[in-house]
Amino acid sequence: MAGHDHKRRQFLQYAAFGTVAAALPSFVLAEDGKIKSVPSASFKPDVEFEITARISEVSIIPGAHTTVFKYHGKLLRGPKNALKTMPGYLGPILNLSQNQKVRIFFYNELPEPSVIHMHGMHVPQRMDGHPVYAIERGERYVYEFEVKNPAGTNWYHSHTHGMTATQVYRGLAGLITITDEQEQKLELPSGVYDIPITIQDRRFTASNQLQYLHGMRERMVGFLGDTILVNGQANSTIPVKTRAYRLRILNGSNSRIYKLGWEDGTQLIAIGTDGGLLESPETYPYIMLAPAERIELWVDFSGRKVGSDLVLNSLEYQVTMPHMGGGMQGGRGRMGRGMGMMNGGLLQGEAFPIIKFHIAERVDDSPKLPEKLVSMRSLTERDISNPDRTVPIDIGMQHMSPQLNGRSFEMHEVMDIERIPVNTIQRIRISNNHGMMGDGSGGMRGRGGMMMSMAHPIHLHGQQFKVLSRTQTDRDSDGYNTVKDGFISNGWKDTVLVMPGEEIEIIKPFEDYTGLFLYHCHNLEHEDMGMMRNFYVH
Fold first, then answer.
1. Angstrom distance (rounded) from CA 281 to CA 56
2. Tell me: the pLDDT tens digits for 6-64?
3. Which domains does the chain have, with CATH numbers?
C-alpha cells in the first residue's frame, strides 16, 4: 500500500514539473492520503450507476462455492434496462446509448488497490482507467463521460498495474453494450434473442477454489485453464428457438486464443467487431478471437430439428511456441504443447467445445439478415496526418522481460516516439519478430535460454483503429495457414492479434482528449510483467 501511494505521489511530482502536465489526474489527495474524487457540478448525467468491487462467494461448478472478486452494480438513475445483473461472478451488463451522459460511482472494498478500465470506450484520459488512478480500499472514484461510441459491444475490467491478471482472473469484468439510431433501424434480434457470451478459462482446486499460475515459465506463456466457462458457468447449454439470434461474444480469458467454429462446419456470419457493427455481414469458416476481442455473430437456427444441439467449438490450430532449454523439444509445433505438460490444462490450440445451443422450440417468424448494416467513417492512408512518420510498436521478449519498443512499463514514462499530437490520424506498425529470452541476443537460438515466438493480442486505449494491412514475414510458417482465414480486418477494432513473424499496419485517430493512453499486450500475464507503454497525447 505504501509503495502504491509513493508511486502516485511520485507521478504527481513528476507531472508538476511539466513533463506530462496535460496528464495530471483529476483527483487530489486528502490529508489522510486517500483520493478525493467528487462528482462534477456541471455534469448532468442521463444514467448513473454505483459499482462496488468486493470479495464474494458464488456457485461456479457443482459443490462448494468459490471465493471471487466481483463487481456489484446498482442503477441510481436512468432507464430500467440500463443495468442487467449476471449470475455468477461477472459484473452487471451496462446497457448504454450513444450520446448519453454517464456517471459511475466506483467503490473499492477489496483488500488491494483497484481501478476500472472502460475497454473500447472513447473517453477522457481520467475516465479511461489508467493504473495511476487505482484507489485503495475504502476509497471512491467518480467516472463521468459522454458515450461517443457507435452501437456495439465493449467491456469494463480491472486495470491495476501488476494486478490486472489476478484481479480479472478472480472476476473483475463485465460487458458494456451501446445502441444508436443506425442500429435501431436495422431491427436486429433483441431482448432474449440478443445473447451475451463471455468466454473464460479457469482452473479449480479440489475444494472449488480458483487456482492460478505455477512458476515463471507458465507466466511467460500466459495462464491456461482446464475448465471453459461461459458467462461464469461451466458446461453451458443455452435453449434457443428456430429463428435468428444475435450473439455478442467476448474473449475474457487471460491469455487463451479461441478459434471459433461450429461443430457441423456451418460458416460463421459476423455482423460486428470490437468497434461496433460492420458495414455489411461477412462470412468466415472460423474466426480467431484473442483475449479482449469481441465478435458479434448472426446465428439462424431456422430449419434445425427441435431437440437437436449445435455446439460452438474452439478448433485446433498451430502456431510457433517456445523451445525451453531443458528438455522440451522445439520450435515449431502446436502452441502450448510444452505448457500442457506443466499445468495439466487444455493446450493453446487444442480443440474443445465451448457452448451448446439446444433447439428447444419451433417458431415460424424470424428476422432476415440485412444485406447492409451501418455506414461508418472511412479512413485510408490519405488521411494520415504525417505520412512520413510511422509509429512503431515492436514486441520483444528479451531477458525474461516482455517489452514494447525495447522498454518495460513505467507509470509516467513516455519516449519521443510515444508523443502524439492531439486531433491527428496516425499510422502505426506493430511488429512481432522477437526471438530469444535469456541471452539477450535477439536471435532465435541460444544456449540455456528460452526461445519464444508466440502470438500477442495488442490493445490500444483511446479511440479505436482500422487495420490497413497484415504481412506475414515467415513464409514457411505452417501454423499461420491454420489461422489466417479467421482474421477480420474490416471495421473498427481496439485489439489485434499479431502472429509470430507478422507485421500489422493500422490507422488510428487520436482525437478529442489529451493525456496518457496505454497500449499493451492483452495477454494479461505479459501486461503485468511490463509489456505495456504510454502514448502521451498532447
1. 40
2. 455 445 444 433 344 444 444 455 555 566 689 999 999 999 999 999 999 999 999 99
3. 2-181 (2.60.40.420), 191-361 (2.60.40.420), 381-537 (2.60.40.420)
